[in-house]
Design goal:
Elements: H1 2-10, E1 14-16, E2 28-30, H2 32-51, E3 56-59, H3 68-72, H4 75-78, E4 80-85, E5 92-94, E6 114-117, E7 121-123, E8 133-135, H5 141-146, H6 148-155, E9 161-170, E10 185-195, H7 200-217, E11 225-229, E12 241-249, E13 252-263, H8 265-274, E14 280-282, E15 287-289, E16 292-299, H9 300-311, E17 312-315, E18 318-321, E19 332-336, H10 341-354, E20 360-362, H11 368-376, E21 382-386, H12 390-393, E22 395-400, E23 406-410, H13 411-423
Parallel strand pairs: 3-9, 19-20, 19-21
Antiparallel strand pairs: 1-2, 4-5, 4-6, 7-8, 9-10, 10-16, 11-12, 12-13, 13-16, 14-15, 17-18, 21-22, 22-23
Helix pairs in contact: 2-9
Bound molecules: glycyl-adenosine-5'-phosphate.
Glycyl-adenosine-5'-phosphate binds next to β10, β13, β16 and α9.
Length: 429
């Protein structure tokens, strides 16, 4: 993890927010390459979960919602962590994260645990009074539940179908940490799948497998990925069953995504709280019913950290991020062998040729070896060198990040060559 944190900082990928003021605990900024990587993670999820499916649609709902949403969802009364204070050093801890009943920092005596609600409160409008109090959403899911009927009717969807969304969520975590693994402002990629009551267990298992496969398809090492079924005593207040997808970080096996059987909890609660009918009308059978929901919920930042940790390797002189090319912030880097005007001009021409189709970088400074290494450590899968022969044969050298093999490719074929390689990519283990 420390190597990843320092690489992210050194290359301006991810670093503490408001750093010139000393930072703010557990809030992070994504710099140029980090923002590209994050967008690629979200695009890869949207591609699989929305674009490639006939039964899932995508939405974008607001962060601030009516406060009654969170009463209905159970978050006002149940979304809490047990908090203890050290009577000596005054530090605060999550009681369920402690190994003993003494303070882990100084060994002092701890207070009794009290429940601390994780939702951030704020006010709408100019008056700070309880009537104007709202919350920043702690999950994106509720936006989907309250809009369920509108979206279903407008899209003329029939069960089984899903509604997906990517967006920011906020939790005032008692003990954030481990870089972007647990922070107070983060993004989620969630999908709520609405079904009748006939095949709920099958659908649940289906989504567990689909989501597990997504990580494998994006190159994550299967030996460090597992599914873990929740015991009844660890289920969230809304869940009938839950399976976590976990990754083995240096801090141990940790949840990166949860697949939950939410039953009819959310829709029923919102029907009761709002007084509005959120049942589904089946025009084939003439039945009205409240659908059951299977949810898949992943954190963008946590997933991104998984891809980074899994891709990181140190090999002799070089550090390399073996990111799947679909995730890599830059797909191809273009280098003139020397800083000679005719090579620079040709290299820029090659960049302009690729740029509309592939995120491309250009670098003319330092030795070619150094330039390769600079791109290796940010995961650029292909390097293209323009040399003096290029001016005669209109061919370039393409170097592969993982195998470091080199191929001579004519410029006319270059785009196809790289795109074919990206499509056929297999992680090197
Ligand atoms: N709608 C269900 C839900 O929100 P969750 O298990 O609380 O379930 C789902 O969160 C995912 O969101 C987690 O698996 C994790 O990837 C991400 N997540 C949750 N809290 C987070 C935090 N404080 N920082 C970063 N990611 C977080």
């Amino acid at each position: 993890m420390n190597e990843i944190i320092s690489l992210c900082k050194r290359r301006g990928m991810i670093f503490p927010s408001s750093e010139i003021y000393g930072g703010i605990n557990s809030c992070w900024d994504y710099g140029v390459l980090g923002a590209d990587l994050k967008r690629n993670v979200k695009n890869a999820w949207w591609y699989t979960m929305v674009q490639m499916r006939d039964d899932v649609v995508g939405v974008d709902t607001s962060i601030i919602m009516h406060p009654d949403v969170w009463k209905a969802s159970g978050h006002v009364s149940n979304f809490t962590d047990p908090l203890v204070d050290c009577k000596v050093c005054k530090q605060r801890f999550r009681a369920d994260h402690l190994q003993s009943d003494r303070c882990p920092a100084c060994g002092g005596e701890l207070t009794e645990a009290r429940q601390f609600n994780l939702m951030f409160k704020t006010y709408v409008g100019p008056v700070e009074e309880s009537a104007a109090q709202v919350y920043l959403r702690p999950e994106t899911a509720q936006g989907i539940f309250v809009d369920f009927k509108t979206i279903q009717a407008a899209s003329r969807l029939r069960v089984p179908f899903g509604i997906a969304q990517i967006g920011k969520s906020f939790r005032n975590e008692v003990s954030p940490g481990n870089f972007i693994f647990r922070s107070r402002e983060f993004e989620q990629m969630e999908m709520e799948f609405f079904i009748d009551d006939k095949k709920d267990d099958e659908w649940f298992e289906y989504w567990v497998e689909e989501r597990f496969k997504w990580y494998l398809d994006l190159g994550v090492n299967p030996a460090r990925l597992r599914k873990r079924r929740h015991r009844p005593d660890e289920l969230a207040h809304y869940a009938k069953a839950c399976v976590d997808i976990e990754y083995e970080f240096s801090i141990g096996w940790q949840e990166i995504e949860g697949i939950a059987h939410r039953g009819r909890f959310d829709l029923t609660q919102h029907m009761n709280q709002s007084g509005k009918d959120l049942s589904y009308y089946d025009d084939l059978t003439g039945e009205h019913f409240v659908p059951i929901v299977i949810e898949t919920s992943a954190g963008v930042d946590r997933t991104l950290l998984t891809f980074l940790v899994d891709a990181y390797a140190e090999e002799g002189e070089r550090t390399v991020l073996r990111l799947h090319p679909r995730l890599a912030p830059t797909k191809v880097a273009i280098f003139p062998l020397q800083k000679k005007p005719e090579l620079v001009e040709k290299a820029r021409e090659v960049k302009r040729l690729l740029q509309p189709y592939l995120a491309a970088a250009y670098d003319e400074t330092g030795s070619i070896g150094r330039r390769y290494r600079r791109q290796d450590e940010v995961g650029t899968p292909y390097g293209v060198t323009i040399d003096f022969d290029t001016l005669n044969d209109q061919a370039v050298t393409v170097r592969d990040r993982d195998t470091m093999t080199q191929n001579r490719v004519v410029i006319d074929q270059l785009r196809n060559f790289i795109q074919d390689r990206m499509e056929q990519y297999k992680p090197l283990r």
